[in-house]
Amino acid sequence: MATHRLKNESGFTLLELILSLAIVAVIGALSVVSVRLAVSSQKAGGDKAEQYQRLRFIGEQLTEKIHSAHPFFLMGTDAPLFSRLNTDKIKGKRILAFDGEPDQVKFITTAGRLNDIDARTTEFHEVRFFKGKNPKTGETGVILVEKPLSFDTALQDTPESLEEATFITLAQNVDKLEFRYLKVKATKAASDQPGQKSVKYISEWVDTIKTEPIEFSGKSQQSLFKAQEGAEGRMSLPRAIEVSLKLENDSEDEEDEDESKALPKVVIPTHTGLVYERNLVPQAEQEG
User: Fold this and answer.
1) In this predicted model, what pLDDT tens digit does every residue of 159-192 receive, in sequence order?
2) Spatial CA neighbour of 214 closest among 121, 119, 91, 59
3) How far apart are CA 66 and CA 60, in angstroms?
4) Quick check: 190 and 205 in contact, CB under 8 A?
5) pLDDT of 39-79, one tens digit each?
6) In the chain, where are the structural domains located?
7) pTM for this model (two decimals)
């Protein structure tokens, strides 16, 4: 007797099997792509957070150091205090220990040292910020230098003057680090009242501040800051320092290529500048 097959026999045809496998493959591929996108997005977000955290940290260090800048004067000796000045020019004179350039700044501060955060007391020490190479580690980026204050080697760049210096790399892959300085000059101006003279203050942003030696009578410390012939206000700290900082953009995302990982331009006032910029014109001339 012949056996008849049921018409509703269960099972997959070859075409149905191929379609099922293709659908599973597509779903698997989409899942893998989704996971990779999630991982890359998380990594990119973490990298951005780290970069902005570094920017914030550098900004805090700059602000703290500049806020605590002190108008420290150094007496010229047989050893030059500045490599650009010869011994005869500075001997017996005083120099304001501040040197500002577009790509670096050096000054004396009382802010706490980054390499000695547990110190309970602060003391005068020299700091400098610049974009370049850390001679201790070979890293390049924003470098902070902290060194004990030395009357004979202040603000010098010789190997001997930097023997006790600590070099700290604040950030690598830096695209730009620039400084500008707000100078205020006091000049005599005509007064509305007959027989009297007034003082006019003129401010300007400059890229470089180089202090020059001056004679000092020793009668009063304040006389160092008063205007002298042809040198109004040259012996005082800048009123403020503008800092521009930008990190290199190493993102692989095309939409992120033009995004600037930069610290907004920050204008940091020097607290002592507000005090030591006063009375740049001698009192006798003001009352005239």
Assistant:
1) 777 888 889 998 888 888 999 999 877 677 666 7
2) 91
3) 10
4) no
5) 776 666 666 677 677 778 888 888 889 888 888 877 655 44
6) 47-287
7) 0.66
Query: How far is residue 6's CA from residue 9's CA, in Å, rounded to a whole number?
Result: 6
Exposure letters 221-235 (e unless 16+ CB within 10 A, then b): eeebbbbeeeebbbb
Total residue length of the chain = 288
Measured CA to CA in angstroms, residue 142 lies from 116, 117, 120, 248 at distances of 19, 20, 27, 12
Alpha-carbon distance of 71 to 93, in angstroms, equals 16
Cβ-contact 96, 273 below 8 angstroms: no
Residues 6+ apart with CB under 8 A from 132: 104, 140, 143
Q: How far apart are CA 251 and CA 155, in angstroms?
A: 38
Q: Which two tokens stand for residue 97?
A: 């220990």
Q: Which residues contact residue 96 at a Cβ distance below 8 angstroms, ignoring those fewer than 6 apart?
A: 71, 72, 73, 211, 235, 236, 237
Residue type, 279: N
Locate 189 and state its tokens: 């101006």
